[in-house]
Amino acid sequence: MLEFVNVSKSFWTGIQRKVILDRASFRVELGNSMGILAPNGTGKTTLINMMAGLEKPDEGEINRTCRISFPLGFMGGVSPRHSAKENSRYIARLYGLDPDYIEAFCRWLCGLEEYFDRPVGTYSQGMSSRFSFALMLALDFDMYLIDEGMPSTTDVEFNRKAGSLLRERLRRATVVIVSHQASTLEKFCKSAAVLKNGQLHMFDTLEEAKRLYDYESQS
Length: 219
Description:
Blueprint: E1 2-12, E2 17-28, E3 34-37, H1 44-52, E4 59-64, H2 84-94, H3 99-110, H4 125-138, E5 143-147, H5 156-170, E6 174-179, H6 182-185, E7 191-196, E8 199-203, H7 206-218
Helix pairs in contact: 2-3, 3-4, 4-5
């Protein structure tokens, strides 16, 4: 379970205060994957980062009673000076897992060949995305956090393998996906919410959430 209790978060832009959440309370139960619709620039990434524990709220409490992933595409725990091999083994030890298994899994899924043994800082954006996604799938979580869906890469084989693995994981795990497009949520979620004026408006179905979202977008 992931729960926000009277959570507030805002930033000073230099001109005005931008409110991400204003005393917002909601809960995501295991087994009930949820999509969140929010226009670009409203704080989707900040919200996902707070769910993962990467950012703290200004006020309120965030309670986690399950294993929650880092956001898809997050590279903050990866050292650019070290190779994918070194990073995967280090992160395996942090989670108390077998470094040999995590290294082998990431090496197989990434398909980076000799670059797997070179510093991550030398990777292209696509290569970094592949390694980040491989790390997330190598670790076993109860709840997966996705900001705008899978990263786009030009590697067809990786997308095929990673997409298949993600779908298999989501059959037995819970996902929270934040996007500005309802079509992105349709593949993963039945219930949805709309981020509006610092509040999450929860709906039982994606169609209900989409109606509010479309209305707000047109007004």
